Amino acid sequence: MRRHRNLIASPLNWQTKAAPVPHPAVPVLAERGGTQLKTPRPVILVDTREQNPFDFSRFEGWFAGIEKRALKLGDYSVAGLEEHCVVERKDLADLVHSFTTERSVFVNRLRLMSHYPHRLLVITTALSDVKSPAACIGGSPNRITQSLIAALAGLQVPFLCSETHELGEELVASYLYQVHLYHWLETNDYGRFLVDNDL
After folding, report:
1. 15: pLDDT strictly greater than 90
2. 16-25, 81-90, 159-168 — which is least confidently predicted?
3. Residues sharing a CB contact under 8 Å with residue 181, sequence separation 6 or more, in sequence order
């Protein structure tokens, strides 16, 4: 007896990928008593050695400028906060290489990052790709994933995975903007929150 083959997959098996909405004009605003605070815009720093740097030009309204300079650690920071804020970016191939061939160098880098009050490892691929044997050629997907978790649990270096390079740009731009904003609020005796009774 011949089996019937479905020409169209069941809707239960469809996977839709949500398209991200455009970025906001400003990531967040600080308010006190319902009045918006006039806060300065930060200058983003991009390390000159970054191989495939994020392009922050579409976020020009968020920042007073973008400067390229050699950073002591990491790929991105905020001018004036270089000793407090570090962001390291990895694509999948670089992450695998860093946790295999260059493991001791990268682990030492993560240890140094752990001393910064604001630290973030951004991976420009989905976590499901990190766990995929096809994508992790040259490394064990489980070992790479467990190394990320160990960096989080043991060194307290948080990581974010973004499905695309462009989404990674927005996440890092927003993170750097907010690190600067919280620092400015604290320094100017406004406290460490953006809006009354909120974050």
Report:
1. no
2. 16-25
3. 28, 30, 39, 42, 194
Q: How far from chain centre, in Å, is Cα 38?
A: 26
d(CA 197, CA 199): 7
Domains of the chain by residue range: 33-187
Helical spans, DSSP H, in 62-140: 92-99, 103-113, 127-130
- Is the pLDDT confidence value at 6 over 70? no
> What are the structure tokens assigned to 191, written together?
């406290």
Rounded mean pLDDT of 149-159?
A: 98
Please check whether residue 121 is in contact with residue 94, taking contact to mean a CB–CB distance below 8 angstroms. Answer: no
β-bridge mates for residue 90, sequence order:
123
Confidence of residue 22 (pLDDT cuts 50, 70, 90): confident
Q: Which DSSP state fits 185?
A: H
Tell me which CATH code domain 33-187 carries. Answer: 3.40.50.10130
First to last CA, the chain: 64
Helix (H, G, I), strand (E, B) or coil at 161: strand
How many Cα atoms sit within 13 Å of 158 on the Cβ side? Answer: 10
User: Position 191: which residue type?
Assistant: G
Helices (H), 13-140: 92-99, 103-113, 127-130
